[in-house]
Amino acid sequence: MVTTKRYTLPPLPYAYNALEPYISAEIMQLHHQKHHQGYVNGANAALEKLEKFRKGEAQIDIRAVLRDLSFHLNGHILHSIFWPNMAPPGKGGGKPGGEIADLINKFFGSFEKFKEEFSQAAKNVEGVGWAILVYEPLEEQLLILQIEKHNLMHAADAQVLLALDVWEHAYYLQYKNDRGSYVDNWWNVVNWDDVERRLQKALNGQIALKL
């Protein structure tokens, strides 16, 4: 029997209103229930087409289906990192501690320079996409990268530690076209404990995707 596992929408680790006033409950609910669920549904639809193809039940445009799978699956994975990368005000924000703080200082010079570079990366993604902080295992270093849409992904095998969604659905209802203010306010809800946890898994050769 040819079967593939299906993806499911993970629950948020906090209530929809938990990130207010920086990200509204309305945005969080729509973002999670509609947009993230849409990526889950899209990935599963592509898998279903591939499964039927493998069973000889259907002919498909393999390039188009694999592109759909890439787009939707990457959207699902990035959002599954994005949600726990944030925490309610009082628990999130501020400066990191632990080894992630040491590596930020080592590779960026200071937290302030890192924050400036990451913010500029997020504010200047062309069109829609993401800013991400990754651990790149080839040279064992931290890098800040941009993702346009979902298909144009980051360096192969790099572990995403911190992800910021700058698609318009992530902020427009509250910030309109002022992406910069959204990015600036987002720093108040960054969950550095989660970033540290992901770093430790990356350093140990593990994958840290689960909520």
TrEMBL record:
<feature type="domain" description="Manganese/iron superoxide dismutase C-terminal">
    <location>
        <begin position="97"/>
        <end position="198"/>
    </location>
</feature>
<keyword id="KW-0408">Iron</keyword>
<comment type="function">
    <text>Destroys radicals which are normally produced within the cells and which are toxic to biological systems.</text>
</comment>
<dbReference type="Pfam" id="PF02777">
    <property type="entry name" value="Sod_Fe_C"/>
</dbReference>
<feature type="binding site">
    <location>
        <position position="79"/>
    </location>
    <ligand>
        <name>Mn(2+)</name>
    </ligand>
</feature>
<dbReference type="InterPro" id="IPR019832">
    <property type="entry name" value="Mn/Fe_SOD_C"/>
</dbReference>
<dbReference type="InterPro" id="IPR019831">
    <property type="entry name" value="Mn/Fe_SOD_N"/>
</dbReference>
<dbReference type="InterPro" id="IPR036314">
    <property type="entry name" value="SOD_C_sf"/>
</dbReference>
<dbReference type="InterPro" id="IPR019833">
    <property type="entry name" value="Mn/Fe_SOD_BS"/>
</dbReference>
<feature type="domain" description="Manganese/iron superoxide dismutase N-terminal">
    <location>
        <begin position="6"/>
        <end position="87"/>
    </location>
</feature>
<feature type="binding site">
    <location>
        <position position="31"/>
    </location>
    <ligand>
        <name>Mn(2+)</name>
    </ligand>
</feature>
<dbReference type="GO" id="GO:0004784">
    <property type="term" value="F:superoxide dismutase activity"/>
</dbReference>
<keyword id="KW-0479">Metal-binding</keyword>
<feature type="binding site">
    <location>
        <position position="165"/>
    </location>
    <ligand>
        <name>Mn(2+)</name>
    </ligand>
</feature>
<protein>
    <recommendedName>
        <fullName>Superoxide dismutase</fullName>
        <ecNumber>1.15.1.1</ecNumber>
    </recommendedName>
</protein>
<comment type="similarity">
    <text>Belongs to the iron/manganese superoxide dismutase family.</text>
</comment>
<dbReference type="Pfam" id="PF00081">
    <property type="entry name" value="Sod_Fe_N"/>
</dbReference>
<dbReference type="GO" id="GO:0046872">
    <property type="term" value="F:metal ion binding"/>
</dbReference>
<dbReference type="InterPro" id="IPR001189">
    <property type="entry name" value="Mn/Fe_SOD"/>
</dbReference>
<feature type="binding site">
    <location>
        <position position="169"/>
    </location>
    <ligand>
        <name>Mn(2+)</name>
    </ligand>
</feature>
<keyword id="KW-0560">Oxidoreductase</keyword>
<dbReference type="InterPro" id="IPR050265">
    <property type="entry name" value="Fe/Mn_Superoxide_Dismutase"/>
</dbReference>
<dbReference type="InterPro" id="IPR036324">
    <property type="entry name" value="Mn/Fe_SOD_N_sf"/>
</dbReference>
